[in-house]
Amino acid sequence: MPGTSQKDNWDRITAMATILVPAAIALAGHFVAQGLKQAEINSEEKRAERTSAIADANTKIAQANLINTMMKSLTSPNPAERKLAVQAVLIALPDQGPVLVRTVAESDENKAVQIAAQASLDQRINLLIRNLFSDDAHTRINSASDLVEGWRNDPAAIPPLIQFATKNSDNQNGVYNTIVVLNDFSLPALQAHRQLILQFIALAKTKGEKTAAKAAELGKKI
């Protein structure tokens, strides 16, 4: 029954919170301990490496705390808090965030939260796609990374990606970045839109040698 399926999905996201949060905190603690141990046994000339190791451990602690906060908000009994959480999690957790928000969009018991989650997903991916065509190289690189991390297994991400690139095909950097991103998508996601991708590959091959080479690589993959 649909209701049972939604409950099962929501039970899984709740279970993920109970498992992921303690594991993330424990892992961060492990890195801290390792960093401090290394700091004790290393010689003075390794100070920079010690500092880097401890900074990395501190980053992992911050990430663990962030995951903790996000998961609590996504499973909050307050629908308004869940609505806000789906917006934040997409930015704060570019790899797992889209997966979590898709589950909310499909399974939340509150229809308004489902709609808000889907709207947040749509807004986020549209922004990332537009940013692939930005004049700023740093913005393009970050957007490509976030698209691959969060959407590489999602066939639904491919049509808007190709449609935007086709409409803006005069932007050679954007077309190249689109081909690069598609190359990093999973094979099942690519095969779901094989004909559409082949048409885009033909276009991309006219946008310079570098783009043509990447397009040929993508063609062989599918």
Summarize the structure.
With 222 residues, the protein is mainly α.
Structure report:
Helix content is 81%, strand content 0%. The protein is mostly helical and 222 residues long. Helix 1 packs antiparallel against helix 4 (97-107), helix 3 runs antiparallel to helix 4 and helix 7 packs antiparallel against helix 8. It is globular and about 55 Å long.
Count of separate DSSP helical elements:
11
Q: Give a quick account of the main beta sheet: strands, pairing sense, barrel closure.
A: none
Helix and strand element order: HHHHHHHHHHH
Helical percentage? over 70%
Q: Determine Rg (CA atoms, Å).
A: 21 Å
| Strand percentage | under 5%
List keywords for this structure.
222 residues, single chain, mainly alpha
What are the SSEs and their pairings?
Layout: H1 2-41, H2 47-74, H3 79-92, H4 97-107, H5 111-131, H6 137-151, H7 158-167, H8 172-183, H9 187-191, H10 194-204, H11 209-221
Helix pairs in contact: 1-2, 1-4, 2-3, 3-4, 3-5, 4-5, 5-6, 6-8, 7-8, 7-10, 8-11, 10-11
